[in-house]
Amino acid sequence: MAQIPNLDNAALNLTALREQSQKELLSIIKSIRGKKCLVIDPKLAGTLSLILQTSVLKEYGTELRILSADPLQTECPKVVYLVRSQLNFMKFVANQIKNDESKGLQREYHLYFVPRRIVACEKILEEEKVHQKLTIGEYPLYLVPLDEDVLSLELDYSLQFAFGVIPNIRAKGVASTKAAELLNHMQLEDPMGIPEIDTVILLDREVDMVTPMCSQLTYEGLLDEMLEIHNGSVEVDASIMGAQQDGKKVKVPLNSSDKLYKEIRDLNLHVVVQVVRQKATSIQQDYAEVKSTNTQSVSELKDFVKRLHSLPEIARHVNLAQHLQSFAAKPAFHARVEIEQIILEAQTYETLFPPLNSMLLEFYSFRPII
């Protein structure tokens, strides 16, 4: 399953951004010859999976590890740390190097800060007496495309450096209006390049304080609510996806590269089940027709084979939708949605107290009650 999202239909040239990040990361890897261990901080691991397939790194003799407080377990003679500029990570790096030295291991160490190095981090490395043992550099990861219409900004001003200052700023809400005025003033003082983005719309959170508190009812919303989407994917038990591997976790990518997901992500769960069932039934009927007759033309057979390629996507979302339904069918979920509707419709609030009391007595999660 492809983890990296397809960006061909993006409104901006996000493919070029991703290719630049790929090029710079591979440049670091290629500059360190031979077998090496790439140690990544936990949050960056998910981010890098949206930029480059791990199989590409392995082609250059790279072994992957996640940075932790534990000693580093690897046989590689060269270690490359790729970490965000956080002080606690410097302690981890220093302790791992010291642990290697206590065992008499002679290794070559490299440290690349993301997106840039800071003095405070290097000061800690000096205090730990490992700074001289490290070759230090930067990996300027500023913008990460999560999908064709979603960007993660890893550094201030990186969007305008990439696409120019946005000329038209529209704002809704008091705080957004103040931010827009400040941005307009800054642009007059320091204009930059020809913009690729025409307009930005700023929405103040205070314009709508209620919506974020409500239960999400779309397919994508429920996936995030119940399984938590991180870096364009969810991690679930393999058994949920139909595999006979109890306890094993699998990552399921969720982005616009999956055409079926792109079609159903904003639909209500009940509608999703109907759409997926309809697609599966249609392919099943086509298969029965192909099997029972020999009258199909080559082009018709080609179309049928093309549709067969969507079967893994259909199976994936059948399993996920079925898992979500098991949660959505519970009385507690229905009660929560009903309470939210009563509040939103400004009905009599007296009817709210009995179900809320029941939730508290049943040790229901306190966060959704609030």
Number of domains: 4
Q: Looking at CATH, which topology of the largest domain would you report?
A: Rossmann fold
The biggest sheet, with number of strands, parallel, antiparallel or mixed sense and barrel status, is: 5 strands, parallel
Q: CATH architecture of the largest domain, please?
A: 3-Layer(aba) Sandwich
Helix percentage: 40-55%
Shape: globular
Please state the CA-atom Rg, rounded to the nearest Å.
26 Å
In the predicted model, the low-confidence regions spanning at least 5 consecutive residues are: none
DSSP, total strands: 11
CATH superfamily of the largest domain: Sec1/Munc18 (SM) protein, domain 1
Q: Report, as a whole number of angstroms, the end-to-end distance.
A: 38 Å
Overall pLDDT score: 85
User: Could you give the order of the helices and strands?
Assistant: HEHHEEHEHEEEHEHEHEEHHHHHHH
Content-based structural category: alpha/beta
Can you list the strand order of the major beta sheet? 2-1-3-4-5
CATH class of the largest domain: Alpha Beta
Beta strand %: 15-25%
Number of helices: 15
